[in-house]
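Q: Joint fold for the lines below.
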Amino acid sequence: MSAPAVEQLLAQLYTDAAIRRRFIANPREVARLGGLDAAEAQAMAAIDLADLRLAARSYAHKRAGRSRGKGLLAWMTRRLAPRQVPEL
Amino acid sequence: MRDRVGLGWRGELAASIFEHLEAIEVLEVIAEDWLHLARRKQAALRAVACERPLLLHGVSLGLASSIPVHDRRLACMARLYETVRPEAWSEHLAFVRAGGIEIGHLAAPPRTPATIEGACDNIARAARAIGATPVLENIATLIEPPASTLDEPAWTSAILRNCAAPMLLDLHNLYANALNFGRDPAQMLAEMPLQRVAVVHLSGGHWLKPEHAPARLLDDHLHDVPEAVFELLELLAQSVPQPLSVIIERDGNFPLFERLLAQMDQARAALGRGRAARALREAA
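A: Joint structure:
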């Protein structure tokens, strides 16, 4: 078992649209290339694809919110106005 | 000690928090908002901690991982903890990065013996670095972590037991996970290691309705606490003898402060009903 490799593949699937597309097309192959053994690859292949897309969208939304928050202007805007986080 | 109800500190709420301090029994501060500030600025939090019991809440260590947390991150938390001297500090049972990739938020790792072991190693290192064991929080997830061999209550219980750690039970996270993956929230609550719960989070969320896929409840901290979550709080108060510190979390879409105060009152009422039912049961 390679738990770090599973976590790394999950992190890639949540953040990288190209890897996600390749995984959806051929999950076992992408998992194998990521260093997972056959049992892990099979477990990854059973992932709920609709939930994977939704989770990836949610994480992208969070990262976008964070990057919007960088810089002095953004900091001042946050301090001077009530924060309105757009809904996902 | 008795049950306490309070609020998550947010800059946007600061003035109202100070104005209504008599109604707030405990405050929780996001550590990452202060981690990289000069010690002099961090010391301002010490002043807040003198006004009300303060809980320091970390969101980015990624303790529940088979990958070791970087020493530098633990040192930053230790420095803030030492400066602020909070009543306690907490972190999530989540991973947030792997292989140099930042996910940008809390993610559920596969629930396996390997991540239990990794989490316990990380938690032990964090406790040594900071000088106090973190209170550990269950997270919400939109996806059942693949490659899992344990369900969430069993995985959570094993980590808390092995680390002898207290729990921060986020009732909206539990509620969302239960509804999203076809479980009964009250039953799932009963399976959690309730005897370890010291702190409770309450928040709200909204339903995502993707085309051609089941709806999912997103824990967004942008909406009021739903009634069903107050009912879970009542059930919790009925189930355990220890005092609870209950924090309402609101990250944006801020309502009038009176509405947050009203939700704190709803939490007190739920605690009161639960404690009364427990007292009745014990008397019988």
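Q: Anything notable?
A: Chain A touches chain B at residues 1, 3-4, 6-8, 10-12, 14-16, 40, 43-44, 46-48, 50-55, 58-60, 62-63, 66, 78-79, 82-85, 87-88 (CB under 8 Å). The radius of gyration of chain A is 17 Å.
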